[in-house]
Amino acid sequence: MASLDKILSGRISRLQHENLLRNLHDTERLSDAKVIRNGRKLISFSCNDYLGLSQNKKLMIAANNANSRYGVGSGASRLITGNNPLYAKLESKLAETCRTQAALVFGSGYLANIGVITALAGIGDLIIADKLSHSCIIEGALLSKAEFRRFTQNNLKSLKELLIKHRKDHNNCLVITESVFSMDGDSADIEKMLRLCKKYNAWLLVDYAHDINHLTGKNPISSPDLIKMGTLSKAVGIYGGYIAGSRTLMEYLRSSAKSFIFTTALPPSVLGSSIAALDIIRKQPIRAKKALDNAAYFRESLSSKLDELDIGHSDSQIVPIIIGGIEDTIRISEYLYENGYLVSAIRPPTVPVNTSRLRFSFSSQHDKKDIDKLIKLLIRYFRSQITF
Ligand SMILES: Cc1ncc(COP(=O)(O)O)c(C=O)c1O
Asked: Where do the structural domains in the chain lie, given as residue ranges?
């Protein structure tokens, strides 16, 4: 065997042994929170399509119209010939949604975070990020070569301690948090964090990828030193990412964010359908409300019947049940699968060791009877386990 394959086979065996080897499954998504996997129809609590837009007929028409008008590909990076006129329209809508002067669309949320972080911070600077930040924040911080420190998840006291201790030794400081945490569903207090950042002369980058309220245009928080990041790939239902903030910031990023400069522009269909999706989200706030109400109903019903379960501090459409061990978590996920529900088992390195969990993501497309049946299944499972 070639040396590369030999080494990789060893690594794969280790991952398999630790239950950390990932597999892909063909999954066809349907319009009503259902999916078909391995020929089985399942109710999915695993999609990030929180507002049910990815299968929306109006958005498909908008995508087709953009395809017919501009073609299927963009042909080059935005700075060469890929800057389709739909970009300006989309960015102006995003700036309006985010209540900022301007916005800049990137190829994905991952690329947006990597790009903005590495453009803003470098050698001699300090980055302080929440400990449970998404991989693209961590990777961006490491890539930037700034000094990188992490504060305890959603804990302002821990952030303040790091600012007191380290801020003075660096030129610029960038603090980073998620607004709604992707694996826990709890929310950061952005206003308080912004005040703290101002006090210590730090910039604040907030990742709104999972914050569905933010998209309804009601996010009141704005400040010249607040940088907003978001994605078009989750609640917007399509693909892409963006940064929103001052005009000066966008002008700078256009010439400095490498993941903006050196990659091909998004296909026109993505831009056309994203514009239409933002309009629907603004006009139909009931979608976000329904997703949030569904999650609240699940949390309340479950904790009134199984108060020993650890469901963290979720206040959003994402609700975890923290199990701990990888094998136990996979077993429950498989039990739900056998009973017609798709709920992902989330394990390290996505979450810290010993906090493997089931992650339930609620959407406007779920209905009460599916949630009630899910709750019954969970109660049956946990009541039959002496260890819980
Ligand atoms: C908090 C957070 N930020 C950024 C991203 C990346 O966004 P995208 O999927 O658009 O690349 C994700 C995706 O999982 C995420 O959860």
From this structure: 20-49+285-384, 57-283
